[in-house]
Amino acid sequence: MHIAVIGTGIVGACSAAWLQRDGHQITFVDPLEPGEACSFGNAGSLSPSACLPVGMPGMWRKVPKWLLDPLGPLTVRTGYLPRVMPWLVRMLRHSTPQEVTRIAGALQTLLRPIFDCYGPLLDHANASELVRRTGCLYVYSSREAAAQWKWGMNLRRSLGVNLVDVEREELEALEPDLKGQFRFGILAPDNGSTLDPSQLVKALCRQALRDGARHDHRSVTGFERAGRRVTGLRMDSGEPLAVDGVVIAAGAWSGALAAQLGDRVPLETQRGYHVTVRSSNLTLRHTVMASEANLMINPMAMGLRLAGTVEFAGLKRAPNYERAQALLRQGLRLFPHLDTSEVTQWMGHRPCMPDSLPVIDRNRDVDNAWMAFGHGHMGMCMGATTGREVAHLVAGRPTQVDLAPFSASRFR
C-alpha cells in the first residue's frame, strides 16, 4: 500500500520504518524537515523506568501553588486557563493511586521493549552509535528527601523496573561532579539515552528515503473519502495526494486531523523548554534526574541539556524564554562551577493526553486511517514500540502490546 505518514517526528519516523519492513510505500507529509519539532528538543531519555504518568497522587495539593509561580514547574499563560481547565481537571481525576497504577502498567508495556524495537531500525540506518545504555541516576539531597518519591519508585519496582539504591560514596564515585550536592541516589541501570534526538530522527528518515520513501513538504488541510476509506489528502497547495492509507503522527497538531475523521480526543500541548550548555568543565556519564528540582540533565553530543518544565499556552503563543533561563538557574544551583558562556535555548510542543497514555489505534469510521500521537514527555521512549504496533495494525496482525489502554474510544 501507499501510506502517508503525517509527521516527521520520532513517532512518524519509526512508524514509517516499521511499515517499510512490511513492504509499504511511504510518503512523509510535513512542511518541516525531520526531527525539527518536539523531537529536536526533548531530553533524549530512552528509559524503561519512565512509566509514571504526569498526574500523580497528591498532585492536586501542589497545582494551585505551581500556577501562582509564572516560572514554576507548571504554569498557564494569561488567558489560557479557561480553555485548559477541563483538561487539568481530567488529568487530576487520573491521578488517584488506582488510576496511576493502571496507567503505569500500560505505559510499561510500551517502554519495556524500547531497545528491542529501536535495534533493527538503528542497525539498518547505521545509526546505532546515537544510542547508549549507560543508565539513569535519580538523585536526592538525602535518603529522607527521596522518601517523597517512594510510592512511585515502589510502583516501578512492582512492574519489573530494575532500580538500585546508591549511597553517597558510591554516588560520588559514579558521578564525581555530583559531589557535595546529592547524598543519595537510585540507579536505573537498564535506562539509556540518545546523544542527539534530532539526529536520530533524521537518520531514520534518511534511511526511509533511501529505501524509497518520499517527503511531501506541504501541510494537510483535510481528507478525501470514499465510504469508509481515505482516498487522498487535501493539501494547503496544489493537487491532493492520493493514498491507500494514512497514519496520523503529527504530534500536538494531530487532534484536529483526527477530529476530521470522527475521532475527537482531548489532546493538549504541554510546552516544554530546554537549555543546552556547551560546557567542557562538567562531565556526566549518566542521565541524571534531580527530582527535587524537577530537572532532567542529559549529557549530549552538543552539550549538557537541562529540561523539565511545563507550560500551557496553546500552539500559537510566542515562547517565554524566562522559563528556559529558570532551568539554567536551577542547573547553576546544582553545579555552581558550570561554564555557561555558550548556551542555547528552545521551546517545543509536547502532545499530551490527560491520562498520559498515547493514542495508538485505528480510526473508528475509516478503515485505512491509523492514529499514533499523544506520547507527551515520552515520545522518544515509546516511538519505536509505537511504530512496530502501528505496522501490526496496518497489516491486520495481532499486536505484541495490548493496545486497549491506548484506544481513542476511551474518551467517548
Automatic annotation (TrEMBL):
Task: Extract the Pfam families matched here.
Answer: DAO
**GO cellular component entries:** cytoplasm
Q: Which organism is it from?
A: Hydrogenophaga intermedia
Question: Does the keyword section mention Transferase?
Answer: no
The chain positions of domain FAD dependent oxidoreductase read: 3-393
Any one Gene Ontology MF annotation carried by this entry is: oxidoreductase activity
Checking SUPFAM superfamilies in the record gives: FAD-linked reductases, C-terminal domain, FAD/NAD(P)-binding domain
Q: Can you name this protein?
A: FAD dependent oxidoreductase
Per its UniProt entry, which superkingdom is the organism in? Answer: Bacteria
